[in-house]
């Protein structure tokens, strides 16, 4: 049966949720812990978010023409509660005598970009999060920060590599193929390659949540419409917002997957979760000009869905009023502005110890005395669905 715009088909590989238990893996550093409020408030933090358009991809990668008549115009923004750990060798080889941060040099020199299997690692790192934006695939992954307390723990390496291999698998399978894509299989391939890359002799421990939206299409030639394949494992979230003339409409939003409060499903060291067993796939018919958001829980723990939709559409309208005449008509810059405004709005709540927030609401439901927002890495990839010309 054909889907109407905004309808969704959910493929759930697992039929029952694992009950919250305090087994060995949950009591280890695998589980996210709620930090004391005083510690979370006093850390020195950067003042401005990092922003950009399409995230870096290998310059030597083959330029393949997509079969899809639709594409993403995308931008991203991120704010980290603390600086990311530098990537270790062999993923990064600093010049002799250099102590610069390898994660901030992707725009300066190809040779200084992090690499795996001889290829530049796609995406960008934001604290423990990773973001990726291309013309058909957007990703937001959240590495579990508690691994920073473990020797050889490196959550941002896990979140970034999962995103890299996930995008690579999707790209290799999608271009030139017919039939439906299989993002869960792509994630499974990415997970396998990440585990292989981070095993002996280059063993690094960590876990990450994962979320992505892949843009595809359905229908016959001349009557094609865009279809979004959304994959989620954990508490990063994907949202589709339709910018109507009145109030914006939240067409679709994923739901968080938790083992128990503040401990999401995740992939990596000691975790029982797997893409095949726990990833949720949603197939969503969308429309041109819909806004698609991939967000870490630093956004959704501090802003409610309706607020996110309002900020997204409000930022788009403001950008069109202020900057549209000075651009070439591309909406990528607008999406960067949308992502930045959502990040700044979430950060305002995150740093306010007295603000009402979704995280506080969930904590109260669990009987926990937590007030204010949740200080965390805040990552947003914003994309608008556009039709190719010609």
Automatic annotation (TrEMBL):
GO terms for molecular function: metal ion binding; protein serine/threonine phosphatase activity. InterPro entries: PPM-type-like_dom_sf (IPR036457), PPM-type_phosphatase-like_dom (IPR001932), PPTC7 (IPR039123). The keyword Cytoplasm does not apply. Residues 27-66, 87-111 are annotated as: Disordered. Residues 36-48 have a biased composition (Basic and acidic residues). Residues 129-385 form the PPM-type phosphatase domain. Residues 94-103 have a biased composition (Low complexity). Keywords: Hydrolase, Magnesium, Manganese, Metal-binding, Protein phosphatase. Its cofactor is Mg(2+); Mn(2+). SUPFAM superfamilies: PP2C-like (SSF81606). The keyword Manganese applies. Its EC number is 3.1.3.16. It catalyses: O-phospho-L-threonyl-[protein] + H2O = L-threonyl-[protein] + phosphate; O-phospho-L-seryl-[protein] + H2O = L-seryl-[protein] + phosphate. PANTHER family: PROTEIN PHOSPHATASE (PTHR12320:SF24), PROTEIN PHOSPHATASE 2C (PTHR12320). Belongs to the PP2C family. This is Protein phosphatase. The lineage of its organism: Eukaryota, Fungi, Dikarya, Ascomycota, Pezizomycotina.
